[in-house]
Amino acid sequence: MTKHLLALFWQRYRQRFWALLAISLVMGLILALLNVTTWNLSATDTLFGNQIHRWEPYLGSANATFSLYSYWLVFVFWLGGLFLMLLDRTENFNQFLFASGYRRSVIYWTKLGMSLVGLVAVAVITTLEQYLIYWLHVPHGVTLNLAWPGVLTSWALGLAMSLGMFALSWFAALIVGQTGPLMVTIGGFTISLIGVANIIQGLLLHWTNAQRDWLAVGLWLAASLILWVWGAGLFGRLSLEHNGEYLLFPKLRLPLYLVFVVYMTALFTINGTDPMAGVWTFVLAALFGYGWLWRPHWLEDWRQRHA
């Protein structure tokens, strides 16, 4: 039965994976060629700096810029998680699966596994293309000193971040039932993570770069597992009753509201010294969160008139 379900998912997802791969290869080519234009190498140089031999993500050298795992791939995973889950709902594919006789847990984990395998394949093929571009542009006489420590650590951090971004957008598309607000919600939260990263770096200034990088790997993987397991539980209770509402699971409204208020208040005040800034942030976050999640009648009427 699982083989039939895999075949069904592959039949549905394959065109999307091919399209995503084509876009990713074009972007990967452009980014690799842009990196190559920064190279300033002589015949006695090595292509990679000494950092390539250390167990930490490779950041490039003074003479050559590299991307051993492109941040573009993080966006690919984010985009994949968002649209694979979203389109299955908006095109009623989930309802078709629910009526097919498969257990929802089997549907969820098969869908998740298929999505991850496809996206990892896109990442591997795109990265191999970039490495090929780098190899073809190595000047004559320059030593190609690629080493596993830098490559594997770059991939560990990049892939962990990609999985985390995939899990965030996948989970958001599972619980938010309106496409426009979904884009605003996941887009805003994703951008806010830049501030979170800066705060964590500020708190861990006494840590080495390698320690902070491996902590990031652990946090991204832990967040991914939590969201995937939580999503499996919610997927089993997904129903048509709340289709078209902002939250497909109304019981999440209060917990999300509390998390949002605390998160926004902490984000804007944790490194601040003005207590009034914290108070105003709390008040504005509380008011906005209430209007966004509970949607008073006048807001809902306005949304329907402009839909």
Give keywords.
about 300 residues; mainly alpha; 10 helices; about 70% helix; about 0% strand; transmembrane helix; ABC transporter permease; transmembrane; membrane
Question: Quick gist of this model?
Answer:
The protein is mainly alpha-helical. The chain has ten helices and no strands.
Low-confidence segments, given as residue ranges, are none
Radius of gyration: 22 Å
- Kindly state the percentage of residues in helix: over 70%
Tell how many strands the DSSP assignment holds.
Answer: 0
Q: Tell me the distance between the termini.
A: 42 Å
Please write the string of helix (H) and strand (E) elements: HHHHHHHHHH
Helices, by number, come to 10
Task: Let me know the largest β-sheet.
Answer: none
**SS-derived structural category:** mainly alpha
Shape: globular
Beta-sheet strand percentage?
under 5%
Protein name: ABC transporter permease
Organism: Levilactobacillus namurensis
Keywords: Membrane, Transmembrane, Transmembrane helix
